[in-house]
Design brief:
Elements: H1 3-29, H2 33-38, H3 45-56, H4 59-72, H5 74-101, H6 106-111, H7 117-149, H8 155-202, H9 208-218, H10 232-248, H11 253-256, H12 265-296, H13 299-305, H14 312-361, H15 368-393, H16 400-422, H17 428-447, H18 450-453, H19 466-484, H20 488-493, H21 500-509, H22 514-531
Helix pairs in contact: 1-8, 1-14, 3-8, 3-12, 4-5, 4-12, 4-14, 5-10, 5-12, 5-21, 7-8, 7-14, 7-15, 7-16, 7-17, 8-12, 8-14, 8-15, 9-12, 10-16, 10-19, 12-14, 14-15, 16-17, 16-19, 17-19
Length: 532
């Protein structure tokens, strides 16, 4: 093992030791179902904002976008814009209703209005499949990435290492450990990117325009002004990708459950504002890092190590700061991957243990300790299953599975979330039909695309098919409601659906019973006045 390898391994061991210490202390507070699923709802706004940033700034954000800018120029930066705009959608439409109606999972939010096992089962199916798609891609990517950064660790060993760590974090520490690991990872990622950006700017007299001018002058293609789409199909592909990014974020289960870890809707709003500032600031740094890699590393050197450019940022760190900085950046990339997969395990295990086991098979009658035990068993089972799937698919190109996860989230989850809150006539059959239609459309079109069938593809676009599957998800909700079920009033009388007006008020205010809450508020005001 060379000196460079010893330095890199030292940083990796340091990151792993830090996360295990966090898990040790979190395990002492992880004593029940509530603490395991949502950290007891006691996470502060700024903490949740950092944790959301850690959840969202995955290896694709840190390494993928920097590499895309290094090789393709400003066209790669478009992805950053899509990721950032997505959070405005979350802030305006999803964060507050999710906190006010949910408990542990997305299905809880829908079940607040629809008293039907079918709704919960369809939501659990979507959560499990989205988390599985995302997790397989992350674990396979972890194997390939660590293999590139640390050639002495085989990809198979890297997948097993990441899988074992995420199992320990989630089974022992639950959401408390996952939250704090996300916070630490977000801090490390921001620090690493900031140092890298300052180091690049120092090479060009701290003038970003000098970087742009030199990139434009030294590269054959237009790296600063994005080119127009080459055809109608490529333009439609781009629109479909951004639709999946903007809407899919609002339907990703591991992002949505973060709003259940805070005590109230006001804190949920403040946490998403914090996350938006952090994520926006981070993405503003990516062009400096990407263009810096273009100039200081060189496109040929980048593609010689990885044709997709995913190691452009670590290569840039090696050129600027030598083996020590390369080791630090590589360790941060490793922490990024393990933190994201831990969040995915929590969301998938919640769907298994809380939705399927407790609410479908046990009719919601499992005790607190039975739920806690089921959550831990489900977490371990999900982690082991994901490791086995990642090992089975490690030799295949599964990068499209991340885009597919966004596509399913946008098509199957977002329509039913919005219509549950804003459409009075929405009914049980409409909710189930919409979720299944969005899921089948997004998965079916992806499997008919060039990603799976190559030259024999029936569906021509390569990006997630959100431009078609999202409208189909909404259409499923409308058709199911109009043709397949009873009216809202009939379902309310039969107890299959809660009163819509109460759900609407609760989603927007957090009051479960408006008059009772107003009376409590009045009494609290009178007590404060009397004490004064």
């Amino acid at each position: 093992m060379s000196t460079d390898d010893i330095i890199a391994v030292s940083f990796f061991i340091g990151v792993i030791a830090l996360t295990l210490i966090i898990t040790y202390f979190a395990a002492k507070r992880n004593t029940g179902a509530s603490s395991h699923y949502v950290a007891g709802g006691q996470i502060k706004g700024w903490q949740n904002g950092l944790a959301i940033s850690g959840d969202y700034l995955s290896a694709a954000s840190f390494l993928g976008i920097a590499g895309a800018i290094a090789l393709e120029g400003f066209a790669g930066f478009y992805l950053s814009v899509g990721f950032l705009v997505a959070y405005l959608t979350v802030l305006l439409l999803v964060a507050e209703p999710m906190r006010n109606l949910g408990k542990y999972t997305l299905a809880d939010m829908l079940a607040a209005r629809f008293n039907a096992r079918g709704v919960r089962a369809a939501s659990a199916l979507n959560t499990i499949m989205i988390s599985t798609f995302y997790m397989i891609a992350q674990l396979v990517g972890a194997g390939a990435l660590i293999g590139l950064l640390l050639p002495f660790i085989p990809p198979t060993m890297a997948i097993i290492l990441v899988g074992v760590l995420m199992t320990v974090y989630v089974v022992l520490g639950g959401m408390i450990a996952t939250t704090w690991i996300q916070i630490v990872k977000a801090g490390l990622l921001i620090l690493a990117t900031l140092v890298l950006t300052i180091a690049v700017l120092a090479q060009f007299s701290f003038n970003p325009f000098s970087i742009l001018n030199e990139v434009q002058a030294s590269t054959p293609q237009n790296m600063v002004i994005p080119p127009a789409p080459e055809s109608f199909g490529s333009g439609l592909d781009t629109v479909s990708l951004f639709l999946a990014l903007v809407l899919g974020t609002a339907g990703l289960p591991h992002i949505l459950i973060r709003f259940l870890t805070v005590p109230d809707a006001k804190t949920a709003r403040s946490s998403i504002v914090t996350a938006t500032w952090i994520i926006g600031g981070f993405y503003l740094l990516t062009p400096i890092v990407g263009y810096g890699a273009t100039l200081l590393v060189g496109q040929q050197t980048i593609t010689s190590q990885d044709p997709s450019g995913n190691v452009a940022a670590p290569q840039l760190a090696g050129v600027i700061g030598g083996p020590a900085f390369l080791g630090f950046i590589s360790a941060v990339a490793f922490a990024t991957i393990v933190a994201v997969v831990a969040g995915l395990v929590i969301s998938a295990s919640g769907a298994f243990a809380h939705d399927v086991y407790n609410n479908i098979f046990r009719n919601g009658e499992a005790s607190e300790q039975e739920q806690f035990r089921a959550a831990r068993i489900a977490s371990g089972a999900v982690a082991v299953g994901s490791i086995l799937l990642a090992l089975a698919f490690q030799d295949l190109n599964v990068a499209f599975l991340v885009a597919l996860a966004f596509g399913v989230a946008a098509s199957a989850n977002v329509p039913v979330i919005l219509l549950t809150i804003f459409w009075r006539r929405f009914n049980t059959i409409g909710a189930i039909t919409g979720m299944l239609t969005g899921f089948v459309a997004s998965v079916g079109l992806t499997f008919l695309s060039p990603n799976i069938l190559g030259d024999a593809a029936i569906y021509p676009l390569e990006e997630p098919p959100a431009v078609f599957s999202v409208p189909l998800g909404f259409l499923g909700c409308f058709v199911g409601t109009l043709l397949g079920g009873k009216s809202t009033e009939e379902e309310e009388r039969e107890g299959r659906q809660a009163n819509y007006e109460e759900i609407y008020v609760r989603a927007n205010t957090g009051f479960s019973t408006l008059e009772e809450e107003l009376e409590n508020s009045r009494r609290e005001g009178e007590q404060e006045e009397s004490r004064a």
